[in-house]
Amino acid sequence: MTGYGKAVVVFQGKKITAEMKSLNSKSLDLSTRVASVYREKEMEIRGMIAQAVERGKVDFTLWTEKDEGQQGGTINGVLADSYRRQIRHISGQCGIPEPEDWWSLLLRMPDVLTKEETMSAELTEEEWKVVKAAVEQCIERLMDFRRQEGEALQHKFEEKLDNIASLLQSIEPFEQSRVERIRQRIVEGLESIKDVDYDRNRLEQEMIYYIEKLDINEEKQRLKNHLEYFRKTMEEGHGQGKKLGFIAQEMGREINTTGSKSNEAEMQNIVVRMKDELEQIKEQVLNVM
């Protein structure tokens, strides 16, 4: 299931950012990029993510930068003075005029202006507590995002289930009238053949057998049961994605059998629409935990 989470904290002038994105996947595919100062805690971070997320293609990044309110650098005065003396000496030797803008020149010289280190050389317990809290907050925000996606997905499923149930009900009028039409076509076909006599009782028996082969009452009932089971399974909460996928497959079997038994154009059109609704369910079931 798709998700996104981000948390930003500040510790002693250092801005620490934890960011995580997830896409659908049948299993957990976790990729982490962690700032070197926190590398020793990477396995613990991976464990925290795996326990909460469980499934999905997950990209997690943890990095640091200097807090904007404390951006700055250090001027190495000794090095700047050394550069200045060397340049004056070379200017005198070569007869080259000295620079008019010493500051502009010296600040561009290597290592004269240096930014303060954005990461401590060693991770302290105090800093790790702050970082761990940021990671936990990032995970929780991703899970909140997922929950919102899940609620929207459930509404979508309910809509599709209602559509299938409505389409299933709309089959009934055509189902009842087709029996008489089938009977009428067979009788008219027999009567159109001259000098042929037939046993009406035997015809009735064959008709009953033929109509029973086309009967879809069992398929309709099983499909109704599957629709209800799908709804109940959604209410069972976390970890029902695979189960919902299996139920959707069974729904497809009943719809397909109904279609194969439907020898009326109107019924087959309805079956095609039911398949379309079910395909949308199957596509979205892949996003369910």
What kind of sheet is the major sheet? Answer: 4 strands, mixed
- What is the domain total for the residues? 3
Structural class: alpha+beta
Say how many strands there are: 6
- Count of DSSP H/I helices: 8
Percent range for β-strand residues = 5-15%
- Form type: elongated
Can you offer a commentary on this structure?
There is one protein chain. This protein is α+β, with helices and mostly antiparallel strands and 289 residues long. The chain has three domains: 3-70 and 123-146, Ribosomal Protein S5, domain 2, CATH 3.30.230; 73-115, no CATH class; 148-285, no CATH class. 62% of the residues lie in helices and 15% in strands. The protein has helices spanning 42-53, 77-94, 102-108, 125-191, 200-214, 217-235, 241-261, 265-285; strands spanning 3-11, 14-23, 28-34, 56-66, 73-75, 113-115. The strands form two sheets. It has a four-stranded mixed β-sheet with strand order 1-2-4-3. The longest helix has 67 residues, at 125-191. The termini are close together. The mean pLDDT is 85.
Topology at a glance:
Elements: E1 3-11, E2 14-23, E3 28-34, H1 42-53, E4 56-66, E5 73-75, H2 77-94, H3 102-108, E6 113-115, H4 125-191, H5 200-214, H6 217-235, H7 241-261, H8 265-285
Parallel strand pairs: 3-4
Antiparallel strand pairs: 1-2, 2-4, 5-6
Helix pairs in contact: 1-4, 4-6, 4-8, 6-7, 7-8
